[in-house]
């Protein structure tokens, strides 16, 4: 079984209110020096069989059609491990 990871982040030009809220809270909690925060999503998918180029392409298709909104988000897919 292969595990694929999809990381989804807002595009740089898109406002990120959740990231800004975290950025504002960090100094109040005693954490200094953080200049920006962007919040995204991480999906881990386990696919039957070995990691193949075909399976990677299928996961990329999933990421582009369901796991992300391509209008406002970018995504990256990689193979994390193979059991």
TrEMBL record:
Gene Ontology cellular component annotations, sorted alphabetically: cytoplasm
GO MF, any single term: phosphoribosylformylglycinamidine synthase activity
Keyword Transmembrane: no
Domain of life: Bacteria
Pfam short name (any one): PurS
Entry keyword Kinase: no
Subcellular location: Cytoplasm
Purpose of the protein: Part of the phosphoribosylformylglycinamidine synthase complex involved in the purines biosynthetic pathway. Catalyzes the ATP-dependent conversion of formylglycinamide ribonucleotide (FGAR) and glutamine to yield formylglycinamidine ribonucleotide (FGAM) and glutamate. The FGAM synthase complex is composed of three subunits. PurQ produces an ammonia molecule by converting glutamine to glutamate. PurL transfers the ammonia molecule to FGAR to form FGAM in an ATP-dependent manner.
Subunit structure: Part of the FGAM synthase complex composed of 1 PurL, 1 PurQ and 2 PurS subunits.
Family: Belongs to the PurS family.
Protein name: Phosphoribosylformylglycinamidine synthase subunit PurS
Organism: Nocardioides gansuensis
């Amino acid at each position: 079984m292969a595990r694929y990871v999809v990381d989804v982040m807002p595009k740089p030009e898109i406002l990120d209110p959740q990231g800004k809220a975290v950025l504002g809270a960090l100094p109040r909690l005693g954490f200094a020096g953080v200049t920006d925060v962007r919040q995204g999503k991480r999906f881990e998918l386990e696919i039957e069989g070995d990691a193949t180029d075909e399976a990677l392409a299928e996961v990329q298709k999933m990421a582009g059609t369901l796991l992300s909104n391509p209008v406002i988000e970018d995504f990256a897919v990689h193979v994390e491990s193979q059991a």
